[in-house]
Amino acid sequence: MISAFAKLLCATACLALGAHAASAQSAPDFYKGKTIHVIVGFGVGGGYDLYARALSRYLGKHLPGHPNVVVQNMAGAGSVRAANYVYAGSPQDGTVIAAVNQNMPMYQMLGGDGAKFEAAGMQWLGSMTNSNGLIYTWHTSGIKSLDDAKQREVPMGAVGTASDSVIFPNLVNEMLGTKFKPIPGYAGTAQINLAMERGEVMGRGGNSWSSVQTANMSWIKEKKINILLQVGFEKESDLPDVPLLLDLVNDEDKKAVVRVVSLPTVLGYGHWVAPGVPKDRVAMLRRAYAATMKDPEFLKETEKTGMIIRTQAGETLDEVVKKVTMAPKSVLDRTAQILKWK
After folding, report:
1. From edge to edge, which strands make up the β-sheet containing 123-127?
2. What is the mean pLDDT of the chain?
């Protein structure tokens, strides 16, 4: 005769096996009939938006269940609003993906105002491209070099305090003695571009080289902008004559600050999901993301539109973010002070 305890044990085991089987079956079927929202932290028309829309057209094709993927623009505070929503206010099930400012991990680490997310909690799916950030002026501004920018105030179109459009001018002012003046309040790149063309501002800081190549290559061909500086760890091969900030700074303490600010340029147009998304679903999204980056139709479209694809795996980006968190507190405090986040 089987004891009551044995019957209970058997029933428990059967339930556990059944639950495991159901979980295994439901994981691939989860996205069937669902819609994935890619939340862009800027307005329509900028680099983050363009790359997110390209991703959205192909990602669902490589996920089991082939969900719809749509882009939602959520501008505000240089992407802080969008990052907060994805991290803490959205469903934690893999149906919401962040396409936000590459500075968000650094912003939180430096104690940025209003951040309700943790750099360490972001689960990265991958990055479509990364490139150096730029500081440039419009061709009619009269500012053609860094030396010119040291002689008089240079109004620069900007988004919010967490955006490169504010970070880079403030950093360069501290490092090199320039007089860039960020003018925040623009929704995104497209609005800043119009402001430059109208003469409301003289230029902008923070737009990436890949973004300029994708959206504004005619500016380069027609010499509409003066590229004064690039921010990153090494020069872009296409910009050998444009100075690199890291090369212009000799003091080691200042170099440490520049390295912290340069780290996000490695993240580029990266995408992540909230910390509560199950690991198996993150793995599914990462596989689909990687497959999208190799999709012949995707690559044909991005080549046709001039988009630069330098894909990186989510695991690689996890390591990059860890490097930010390992910087000495003294360096982080100094960086936050320079960026006026403290």
Report:
1. 68-73, 35-40, 96-99, 270-273, 123-127, 312-313
2. 90
